[in-house]
TrEMBL record:
<protein>
    <submittedName>
        <fullName>ABC transporter-related protein</fullName>
    </submittedName>
</protein>
<keyword id="KW-0547">Nucleotide-binding</keyword>
<feature type="region of interest" description="Disordered">
    <location>
        <begin position="300"/>
        <end position="322"/>
    </location>
</feature>
<dbReference type="GO" id="GO:0005524">
    <property type="term" value="F:ATP binding"/>
</dbReference>
<feature type="domain" description="ABC transporter">
    <location>
        <begin position="4"/>
        <end position="228"/>
    </location>
</feature>
<dbReference type="GO" id="GO:0016887">
    <property type="term" value="F:ATP hydrolysis activity"/>
</dbReference>
<dbReference type="Pfam" id="PF00005">
    <property type="entry name" value="ABC_tran"/>
</dbReference>
<dbReference type="InterPro" id="IPR003593">
    <property type="entry name" value="AAA+_ATPase"/>
</dbReference>
<feature type="compositionally biased region" description="Polar residues">
    <location>
        <begin position="302"/>
        <end position="313"/>
    </location>
</feature>
<keyword id="KW-0067">ATP-binding</keyword>
<comment type="similarity">
    <text>Belongs to the ABC transporter superfamily.</text>
</comment>
<dbReference type="InterPro" id="IPR027417">
    <property type="entry name" value="P-loop_NTPase"/>
</dbReference>
<keyword id="KW-0813">Transport</keyword>
<dbReference type="InterPro" id="IPR050763">
    <property type="entry name" value="ABC_transporter_ATP-binding"/>
</dbReference>
<dbReference type="InterPro" id="IPR003439">
    <property type="entry name" value="ABC_transporter-like_ATP-bd"/>
</dbReference>
């Protein structure tokens, strides 16, 4: 039995179709990243999975239970931890009171250990909390009853880089211990570090579900080479060269530095440039942003050839966000 199963999930808000026939399953023991830009429909899926919204069409099962059945939903929620995108705690309560309330409702197997990692100021009232402290308290309440499955909506928003790293290490350790994690994000680097598989949503539709590794393999390598004299473009027209750009010369094609994405056989590439004297060569894993550009920035199956791209600008983003 999968931890979460969606079958043809459709959700309309009046005229707006926020989720359109979404089908996928989150398997037990995996970390599944749900990726998409703002407004793609991630929160809508999560709120439907939690039974907070009812589907317009389709079915949703959470830990094997039908979320539209009140009793079954309650059963599933006992073994679930949920961190909303904007946790709303009672503003007049202190952090400690929130934890006590949560312990009485769902149990408390591990808040002491969690508070060593994420340490919100427990004696302060929530209205005095910063965004980061709210997020830390949210993480403690999500995990303190030792759930089997956690659903996290943009979990690292508001956390500083040190805490983000601590969160990543924590999630990896939890996964090793058998926890299932479903989390949404628009931050590619986060997903890459944590996930086994990703689902990508765009305009309410699922674009792909696949292992992070296969996304990376398909995205190929990022190659940067520097020769001590211009390399004729035809020498670089090797199968698998995409987005070729040359820099450093007076005009297109007469520079001595070349960058491109490469999805072909690296030996064929090396053979093609063997006769030229190189000053430098680097071959790195392509940024996940490149893969996303295929989903969001154009036709994924219609990659331009090397010559078409020789003078074109790059669409490689550097921010790490979708
Ligand atoms: N209550 C609502 N009423 C009407 N439209 C809504 C409502 N909630 C969301 N929407 C619309 O549904 C679409 C999907 O929104 P959703 O919040 O699920 O996206 P998201 O991927 O979670 O975005 P974000 O990353 O910004 O949280 C958007 O077009 C949004 O404007």
């Amino acid at each position: 039995m999968a931890a979460i199963e969606l079958e043809g999930l459709t959700k309309d808000y009046g005229e707006v179709r926020a989720n359109d026939g979404i089908t996928f399953a989150v398997e037990r023991g995996e970390v599944f990243g749900y990726l998409g830009p703002n407004g793609a429909g991630k929160t809508t899926t999560i709120r439907t999975v939690l039974g907070l919204l009812s589907p317009t069409a389709g079915t949703v099962r959470l830990l094997g239970r039908d979320v539209t059945d009140e009793a079954q939903l309650l059963e599933a929620k006992r073994r679930l931890g949920y961190l909303p995108d904007d946790p709303a705690f009672d503003e007049t309560a202190t952090g400690r009171e929130i934890l006590d309330l949560h312990a009485s409702l769902k149990g408390d197997e591990r808040s002491a250990a969690l508070l060593e990692l994420f340490d919100p100021p427990l004696d302060r009232e929530i209205r005095e909390y910063s965004r980061g402290n709210v997020q830390k308290l949210g993480l403690v309440t999500t995990f303190m009853h030792d759930p089997d499955l956690v659903i996290l909506d943009e979990p690292t928003s508001g956390l500083d880089p040190l805490l983000q790293q601590r969160f990543n290490e924590f999630v990896r350790a939890e996964r090793e211990a058998g926890l299932t994690v479903f989390f949404s994000s628009h931050i590619l680097s986060e997903v890459r570090k944590l996930c086994d598989r990703v689902g990508i949503i765009r305009d309410g539709r699922l674009v792909t579900v696949e292992p992070v590794e296969s996304l990376l393999n398909r995205s190929g390598k990022f190659v940067r080479l520097h020769a001590d004299e211009p390399i004729p473009i035809r020498s670089l027209e090797v199968d698998g060269v995409h987005g070729l750009e040359s820099n450093g010369g007076a005009g297109p094609g007469d520079g001595t530095e070349y960058v491109f994405t490469f999805t072909g056989d690296i030996n064929a590439l090396l053979a093609a440039i063997r006769e030229y004297r190189l000053v430098d060569l680097s071959i790195e894993e392509a940024p996940l942003e490149d893969v996303f550009m295929r989903f969001y920035g154009g036709n994924a199956t219609d990659a331009p050839t090397a010559t078409e791209q020789t003078t074109a600008g790059t669409d490689r983003g550097g921010s790490g966000d979708v």
